[in-house]
Specification:
- The structure holds two protein chains of two kinds.
- Chain A contains twelve helices and 22 strands.
- By secondary structure, chain A is of the alpha+beta class.
- Chain A has two domains: 310 residues, Peroxisomal Thiolase, Chain A, domain 1, CATH 3.40.47.10; 129 residues, no CATH class.
- In chain A, α2 packs across α3.
- The longest helix of chain A has 23 residues.
- Chain B is an alpha/beta fold.
- Chain B has two domains: 132 residues, Peroxisomal Thiolase, Chain A, domain 1, CATH 3.40.47.10; 224 residues, Peroxisomal Thiolase, Chain A, domain 1.
- Helix content of chain B is 33%, strand content 19%.
- Chain B is built from 13 helices and eleven strands.
- In chain B, the strands form two sheets. Chain B has a nine-stranded mixed β-sheet, sandwiched between helices.
- At the A-B interface, α11, β18, β19, β20 and β22 of A face α4, α5 and β5 of B.
């Protein structure tokens, strides 16, 4: 038996109000959508989801990372996700970058691999005023696959179809689409056929399915295809009303369906992008006690102005402070300290017990020079020792909220406090570590670091 | 083991200091030549060849002693460049004093100079070793602004009261700078203007920050017993102290950002050398490292001038004003004299040179007994501090 052992969804905190978009660019808009913050990208969001899912899943020997907005090309982003998720060097990490269908591909590959973690993460935007900007959702989901599942795989079916419905040139912001009706006529029959194929293989009927996930970038095709199901079957994903999350959409939808499912339920997940993929899962008895997506515990959204949002996406560049250029981290130094830089692993002194952040040769408290133990700080909450707002920072979002953090048990580190735009800070406030971007240098090197964000009571 | 006053005391017998400011028409060579020639002239008209050895302090304006030898056409002399962040000027002076005191040389020079305003941006760029990108990147005002909430919390003072004291310090040092023809900023600024300025970091506005400036200063140093051969009013050195912390405060939860322990340690060492037991009454005037106004505030406690947690009150009471009991930064300080890194420590000693010779004009302090110079580099928790004590009396 193989299937999903644990799963998690990560939603960024900022919320873009569509009415705010409409005020600037025209048209109408209502409701909000989640957007990745100024210091997030597909990789950092993927790390957050993977960390959460791996907390309760079994061991994995491969990682499959899907996104249409890869932070790097040629250099693997999956490797970064694996390192920051604390996975061992023996875990094979692979990227499915570019095509939306990579989300379904990663799931299929992960299920075939057996003990794996499937991470799908995407940042959805386009030119100002585009449908992708208004209707997208920035999100990530991770599914840990293994032999003791909470949802066992019953069957799969796939169809591949070569046609141009939407396309984006590498490096460009804009995604182009063909006429809407063309896509409807291609996608709706594909969905019908792949659903028939998978249900046939599983010897199931449509009405036996409890939860349906229908993921496609083509909104009108989705509206047509959903007529083949009952509203109750689609209720779990409908209720979340997140918007289309790109390569992460299928996994996010699956997580929403599993959140709503009970042992014995059947879940059908369909993705329609350049063809169609269908997966049927049966929820097992293990699900009752297993951890859920974490979506219900997501911190409340924080509004972001349309101007800040466009600035974050590089679409409204702001005059920078008259300060020296950002210095990129250098690869040999980042390699030497990878467990610290990416894994947030401190060195706990064997003599006095103080946690040295970053790890050192000589303990900063007692000067002992041997006997250090590596200790992960990722799940260690802390408190603000002191703080400031830095308007001269190289951070994209000014002022940078800078805090000195004292971690529970011991350890002190200074870093940027994120997800705290406009938030009142005080000495003693609780914070939690989070993997983010410090800066992107002129040579394109992305400086990933661990920061802190406000601590959520649910984490206790 | 121990730290001691110099076995053979030394004296400054000639000093000079350029104007500080945005000197678009001068490069570092021009500044070093003016300061060096000026100091030699003040020491009874010595020539460059009369100096046996040189110490040059510069953080980012040149490497090696050759930065000094080239413009001055010095050849075949021992010339050393030293660097210790913003305490660089004091380091050049301290090492030069040791060289004379040891008997290795008879006449030495300490020169400090910096050309910052060709960089094209406000503030400083610290030289940094390529790294893994994880050290926190804060602006200098941000690092020092962290003192404010920490100090407020430690002593149960409101941040508004601290801000009021910070505003007083900025107002005082601008007022002092207005009376100094060499200063970068020579204008009094009303407290209302200072208090209303937009923030750059935490509670700090541009008025809480020192001026980024170009400039140079130089001193000729000889053994105290020889001093009167060069000038009839030498400035004698009573103490030379340097304290380098472990630089771990920012990673040590025992550190709370409300104090500058390295400054206190360097002051203790210096007071012992000079035989000072009550600095609050024995020091007549002090030049301290007011890189940011909260720094000067906390330094009043670290140097033993104010009780712990009471400096803000003493500041507001005018104790450190020009006409107060213990004038601090009477030349305008880093705040309005300007802060050309390598020169600043020597600029502070230059004010003592003027004051103890009675040449400070409208800033003149009556009958000073001891003058204290405190010059530091780094940030709270990651600091070096130098303290020098001088007077016109031979130790």
């Amino acid at each position: 038996m193989v299937g999903i052992e644990s799963y998690a969804v990560y939603l960024p905190v900022p919320r873009l109000d569509r009415a705010d978009v409409a005020r600037v660019i025209g048209g109408r808009g209502k409701g909000v959508r989640p957007v990745a913050s100024y210091d997030e990208d597909a990789t950092t969001m993927g790390v957050a989801a993977a960390r959460a899912a791996l907390r309760s899943g079994g061991g994995v020997d491969s990682l499959w990372f899907a996104t249409t907005r890869p932070a790097y090309l040629e250099k693997s982003n999956a490797a970064t996700v694996a390192a920051a998720a604390g996975l061992a060097a023996e875990v094979a990490a692979y990227d499915l970058s570019g095509a939306l269908r990579g989300g379904a591909g990663a799931l299929r590959a992960g299920l075939s691999a057996g003990a794996s973690v499937v991470v799908a993460s995407d940042v959805r935007y386009g030119l100002p005023g585009s449908a992708d900007e208004a209707e997208g959702a920035d999100a990530a989901a991770a599914l840990v696959v293994g032999p003791d599942p909470i949802a066992e795989l019953v069957g799969t079916a796939s169809l591949t179809s070569e046609f141009l419905d939407r396309w984006r040139i590498p490096g460009e912001v804009r995604t182009r689409t063909w006429e809407e009706r063309f896509g409807v006529e291609e996608y709706v029959p594909l969905v019908e056929r792949v659903v028939d194929d998978v249900l046939g293989r599983c010897e199931l009927k449509r009405e036996q399915i409890d939860h349906v996930v229908l993921s496609t970038p083509h909104a009108r095709a989705r509206a047509s295809a959903r007529r083949g199901f009952e509203a109750a079957q689609l209720a779990a994903t409908d209720a979340a009303a997140l918007g289309y999350a790109g390569a992460a959409d299928l996994a996010v939808g699956l997580a929403l369906a599993l959140d709503a499912a009970s042992p014995g339920d059947l879940v059908l997940a369909v993705s329609a992008t350049d063809g169609a993929d269908a997966f049927v899962f049966r929820v097992t008895e293990r699900h009752a006690t297993s951890g859920r997506s974490g979506l219900a515990d997501t911190p409340p959204g924080q509004p972001v102005s349309y101007g800040d949002f466009l600035n974050w996406r590089g679409l409204l560049p702001r005059e920078p402070a008259r300060r020296p250029d950002v210095k990129p981290p250098v690869p040999p130094a980042a390699r030497r300290t990878a467990s610290w830089k990416f894994g947030f692993v401190a060195a706990q002194c064997g003599s006095c017990g103080y946690r040295n952040l970053p790890p050192r040769q000589v303990c900063l408290r007692c000067s002992a020079s041997e006997g250090f133990e590596p200790v992960s700080m990722v799940d260690v909450p802390g408190r603000i020792a002191t703080f400031t707002d830095d308007w001269l920072s190289e951070s994209v979002q000014l002022p940078a909220r800078v805090v000195a953090v004292d971690f529970e048990g011991s350890g002190r580190f200074e870093c940027e406090m994120t997800d705290a735009v406009g938030r009142e800070l005080a000495i003693g406030d609780r914070v939690s570590p989070t993997f983010r971007l410090a800066s992107v240098a002129a040579n394109g090197v992305r400086n990933y670091v661990w920061k802190v964000r406000p601590h959520l009571e649910e984490e206790d | 083991m121990g730290s001691h006053a110099l076995a053979t005391p030394v004296a400054v017998v000639g000093m000079a200091c350029t104007n500080f400011g945005e000197l678009w028409d001068r490069n570092v060579d021009d500044l070093l030549v003016e300061a060096t020639h000026g100091a030699l002239g003040a020491a009874g008209g010595l020539g460059v060849d009369d100096v046996d050895a040189f110490w040059l302090g510069s953080m980012i304006s040149g490497v090696s002693g050759l930065t000094l030898t080239r413009p001055l056409n010095i050849s075949h002399k021992p010339v050393t460049r030293v660097e210790n962040m913003c305490a660089t000027g004091s380091e050049a002076f301290r090492n030069a004093c040791y060289a004379v005191s040891s008997g290795a040389y008879d006449v030495v020079m300490a020169v400090g100079g910096e050309k910052l305003k060709d960089a094209g941006y406000s503030g400083l760029e610290m030289p940094s070793v390529p790294n893994d990108g994880t050290p926190p990147v804060l602006s200098a005002p941000a690092m020092y602004s962290m003192i404010v909430p920490a100090y407020a919390r430690r002593y149960g003072v409101s941040e508004e009261q601290i801000k009021e004291a910070m505003t007083h310090i900025a107002w005082k040092n601008h007022g002092n700078g207005a009376r100094n023809p060499r200063a970068q900023f020579r204008k009094e600024v009303p407290k209302e203007t200072i208090a209303a300025a937009p923030t750059l970091a935490g509670r700090l506005s541009v008025f809480d920050c020192s001026g980024v400036a170009d400039g140079a200063a130089a001193a000729v140093i000889v053994r105290a017993e020889d001093a009167l051969k060069y000038t009839d009013k030498p400035l004698y050195v009573h103490a030379l102290a340097l304290d380098a912390g472990s630089g771990t405060g920012r990673n040590d939860s025992d550190y709370d950002y409300s104090d500058l322990a390295e400054a206190a340690a360097s002051a203790r060492t210096a007071y012992a050398q000079a035989g000072i037991t009550d600095p609050a009454t024995e020091i007549s005037l002090a030049e301290v490292h007011d890189c940011f106004t909260p720094t000067e505030l906390v330094l009043m406690e670290e140097l033993g001038f104010s009780e712990r947690g009471k400096a803000w009150r003493d500041v507001l009471d005018g104790r450190y004003d020009r006409d107060g009991a213990l004038p601090v930064n009477i030349d305008g300080g880093l705040k309005s004299f300007g802060h050309p890194i390598g020169a600043s420590g020597l600029r502070m000693i230059f004010e003592m040179w003027l004051q103890f010779r009675g040449e400070a004009g409208e800033r003149q302090v009556a009958d000073p007994r001891f003058g204290l110079v405190q010059n530091q580099g780094g940030s709270p928790g990651d600091l070096v501090s130098a303290v020098t004590i001088v007077s016109d009396r031979r130790p």
